[in-house]
Amino acid sequence: MALSPLLLVGLAVVVFVGFNIGGSNVGVAFGPAVGSKSVSATGAAALMTVSFFVGGWTVGRGVVRTMGGRIVPSSEFTLAAGIVVLFFIGLALFLANVVGVPASTSMTGVGSIAGLGLATNTLNWTTMGEIVSWWIVSPVIAFWVSGVIGRYFYPHLNRLFAVKQTEGSLLALDRSRTPPRPTLGANTTVRELVGTLLVVVVACYTAFSAGTSNAANAIAPLVGAGVLDIGPGIVLAGLAVGLGAFTIGRRTIDTMGNDLTDMPLLAALIVAVVSSTLVTLLSWFDIPVSVVIISTMSIVGLGWGRATRSVTVADVREGEAPTVSVDALAADVDTQTVGGGGNPPDPEAEPTPIGDEIGSDEPTGLFKPGASARVIAMQNLVPAVATLTSFLLFRFVLFS
Q1: In a 3-state reduction of DSSP, which class is residue 337?
Q2: Sequence ranges of the domains in the chain
Q3: What backbone phi and psi angles, to 5 degrees, belong to 188?
Q4: Which tens digits make up the pLDDT trace of 141-197?
Q5: Distance between CA 319 and CA 317 in Å, rounded?
Q6: Rounded to whole angstroms, what are the CA distances from 350 to 152, 166, 260?
Q7: Taking the model in full, what pTM does it have?
Q8: Calpha distance 194→91 (Å, rounded)
Q9: In this predicted structure, what is the pLDDT of residue 28?
Q10: What is the DSSP letter of 372?
Q11: pLDDT digits (tens, 9 = 90+) for 6-19
Q12: CA distances from 174 to 188, 191, 355 (A)
């Protein structure tokens, strides 16, 4: 069966969107792992491709159905309408690259579909209300979960997972046995091996969660239009994501892995676990959410929790407020950072009790309120513009 020119255009846009998703998400998922030299950039791209595909193939199908038929009935999707929605998602990724601010493809995609629903008066307000509610609630959950971890558990986790990287290869091949078997490197400790594997596993988990939510952004409009089945669509999206991870993704890996040297490695792992778990759980319930906003609020919450360790609840009751700054994440100069710098804390040293810990007096630039406000503003502005533009286009151009 010959493919129509319009369908070829649609498939090309799917590849373009998936390509950009892979290029941006691989840095978020594997930046800490590559920066700490736990895995190579090539290995990160390969693991990203596989993990993203598994996430989309398993949990992500429900999100595809939500974006392809629950926000607006599938009967309202045409091939042209699907391409227009994909165009807005691709435009959001393009704008994100131009201004250097990550745009939420999920929120933009939902906004574009909502514009179609408003133009045709077929928007499912119940589903839309449920999605928007979780857009509001999920960042709050991420903030408080990370805040509790930062205040009560971070120092203990920092000591428990302290890893000192040694010189030489992590693993070696023991050729004295038949067949040869992998063994620890000359200077590698069991603690270092376990810590390195943990970093890689968390990175794969983050890539998996990205697949559960973001695979839908590349294929849902065409699935809703009935011109692409979910299975082949996820395969196509996975291949496009892999292409982006192996090519333009190297730049984002370098940025996230080497430029963010003020972000402690443990903090990056905590943020990844908290945000990825929330995204995966919501994807399980077919809710598309913004990974970037959840991650941002997780960083803020973790830093807030670390900063409040300088005072006790009794101090607050007496009117003594802590100097709250998320720069507290980088207050421990002996903490390993995302870029691999610094030394791990002493595993034998007891954490400083709450109320006795001294916060950082000199901001390190880990979190800048102005920059964060710009990120949050763009995260909400881009979907709003996409919704309005989509509505105007569908209402007065395509369906006039």
Answers
A1: strand
A2: 7-398
A3: -75, 135
A4: 999 999 999 888 988 888 777 666 666 666 666 677 777 777 776 666 777 788 888
A5: 5
A6: 14, 24, 28
A7: 0.83
A8: 41
A9: 80
A10: H
A11: 999 999 999 999 99
A12: 14, 20, 51
